[in-house]
Please model this.
Amino acid sequence: MTPPEKESLCQVFASLFSPPDREMERWVQGGALYSFFKKYTDDWGEGEPFLNGFLAAGGEVGFGKELEEAYEHLFSDLREDHICLVESFYKPWTQDIHCSLLFASNKGLLMGDSALHLSAVYEQCGMEISEEFKWKPDHLVLELEFLSLLYRFKTDMEIKAFINHHLDWVPSLKKEFERFHPHRFYVSALDILDLFLRRERERLEVEEHG
Amino acid sequence: MENIKITRRGFLKTAVAGAGAFSLTSGLLDFQKWVHASAGAAVTSVPTICNGCGNRCGIFAHVKNGRLWKIEGNPDANGNLGVICPKGHGYLHDLYNPNRLKGPLKRVGDKFEPISWEEAYKEIAQKMNLILLANGPQSIFWVNYPQTNHAYALRLMHALGSPHYFTHGSTCFTARNAGWATTVGELPSNDLSHSRYILIVGRNPAGGIDLGQVKRIAEAKEKGAKLVVVDPRHSETAILADEWLPIKPGTDLAFLLGMINVFVKEGLYDGRFVREKTVGFEQLEEEIVNYPPEWAEKVCEIPARTIVQIAREMAKAKPKALIHRGYHGAFGSQYLNSFQTARALAIANSLLGNINREGGIYFPQSAQLGELQPDHPAPDLPEMGKADGTGVPGRYPLGSYGDGIAHAIPELALRGELKAGFVYHNNPLRTNPNPKRVIAGYKKLDLLVVIDTVLSETASIAHYVLPESFYLERTEAIDTKHSGKRAQVSLQQQAVKPLFDTRPGTQIIIELAKHLGVGKYFNFDIEEANRLRLRSLGVTLENLKKKGVLFVGEKWKEGCGKLNTPSGKVEIHSSTLEKLDFPSIPRWEEPLVSPDPKDPQSFRLLHGKQAIHTHAMTANQPYLMAISQRYDMIRLWMNRERGVRLGLKDGDWVQIKSMVGEGKIRVRLTGGIHPSCVWLPSGYGIFSKHLKTAFDMGLSYNDFLPTYFDPTVGHAMSSEIVVQVTKA
Model:
């Protein structure tokens, strides 16, 4: 895969975990999403199972509504129980050993170290977070958008650092998914994201150490 | 087939396109390097006050990298003397809790949908104004657990023409307050640290935690004071006591009458104080002969010799001897006889001549905050009385007009007298008696607006939910809560930026007022209001911001002057009560209901706080709930012998059933409780599914309590519950 392809791939991933819109519905129903990912899964030597969520959905009437409901069911924080797509939630709140708060090393909270770090990174890059993500700078969607920019503007060194430090929680997110019996679309989306990140980690490791 | 071509706008926006704009210092992406560097960032300290319970302890919030980093107690704060309790630490978790409310919500069908602040205000105002037009101002109410900004909530209700401002008082302390006010004119404090003999009846400052009091009791004990605790349960305070007297619940009045009998019969009272500062001693002498200690023993099950011994010991230590003024436990709002119990307790203290004396009961110095007038004229007081009947002869003549009878709101709603209301920092669906009735009442309202930080039980049924910022995210009204022997003024101020689209409570009140068409009474912000109200105290807002707590006014002086009673003296005999046809001298009155002594399954249900929870607010804090679980604290206390007779083992599940509710819980068999009662820790029994940590953990005593109104004050009589307990 070329860096522009990876840039584009990360943008698509970010779209998959954003609130679904008409564009997403069209991509699925027209088969574009399936085809887009098939090319890569074939390259990675992985088969159809990864794409089931996109294939089975294609052509179904009212899929947009179904996707909206699935997203709301899984990720809406107005629900009593939902999946949190924020990195801080899956990691100890701070590594500051001098912090004496009871929850200093707890998981399950917002605005952890990862959020602060990314806020500093975005600020230095002259980037602003839109209002709806203000309190979650380490949301998966923002991290994927940022990774996409790294593929455009930066080298493997920065990409490796970002994937290793800020996208290492995706396996924890997969575990969290298991509690919710998610819609097949989101199972495929997360499986392929995880696959891509694993492949990238392997590649970056090989390129660094030969 | 369509190709993938992204047209949506990203959520991460770049101001300038191109690689030039995307500059990153080498190494900034290295998370560990950043962690190391950020650990050395400067720490700022913001004095503020805790919101973990109603004590509003003075604290310093330390902030690093824009986040909370540590809290410490403010040693200048009279109420906590530099100490913070587990609730204060545990409640901080909510600041970064992903389940907090993040923006205003509107009910659509059986779900909530996000709504903007402006739209929410517009819709609320439109609906509220229609209700006001159709039903008049008496049809709306505001209820809150008092916050520093309660004066503005009251102002809002008055601006709208409604008298219906309520606190939680009728389920907590109104009987105690009324008893003291009728007898000595106001609610006093306890000079614990200078006392040589402290008798505590029912109050549990080490459980329903009051850090200042616990510290002062410890100080007094170090100097040799004796501490006696009268409580059906071996409470956290009883652990500190020299003697624990497990009284039969509901009979504290009998114990006090027995003590007064000894004071009078043996001439142990302060004769000079009685002659000069009291009225009605002769009538007391006539009445009290009916209550010798032997009689009291039969009623309250404390041996007569112990009653005599305590009375003599206290008399010997007088005036540096006190009977704690009490709070919720025993006679705050517990029994039919709670008002008279408070009266008897005030009278017993008076006989010791300890009123406004060092080491006795004293009247705290008060900081009289200035008014907003003339800069911002106040609305007229509403013309009509409160529909709950507080202050109305023939209804609840000694009820607190200021607090109202909040647990009457569901009844008034069901009768159609209340149509709309605001609930702020309060959760009546969980903290009021008889939840089925409360839910029915609140659901009957045409408009319910809840201001809270989480989706509590009450917020879950609201039409609109307005999210308040967490207490460390907002500056609020100045406060005089910490006043003691010298008055104090304190300030809650913002330590960190609000994380979500939330707003400070006072700002919400002001904005509601403006949308409701009464903005002319709210042409100020919190900064200006605080400055205006401090004007008369001779301190500046700038200094208060720096210190968090400031002493103001004169120091307390010993001596009992003219009291705020009709006679200006301690009213042992109350002409007010006589006119209202209530007993003008305390006399024995049975509790409303009592367990059947012949029925092995029949118990009185008591409740009380554990030091780690406040009402229903803290149960959802993971650390506090972890403590509850680690120490197996979510259990029903039962006397061991009675439990064994029911075939129970420690830890067994039991079924509790009353005339209004039932539930299951595990039992704790112990010798530390009177055999006639069982005791349920309060703060549990959360049924909002949005409060995931606390959901379905334990039970609430309110599930078993019928809706009662004491005839004098209108309080909830929340220990007048007889339950059947059986093995589950």
Notes: Chain B has a mean pLDDT of 95. The first strand of chain B starts at residue 12 and ends at 14. Chain B touches chain A through 58 residues (CB under 8 Å).
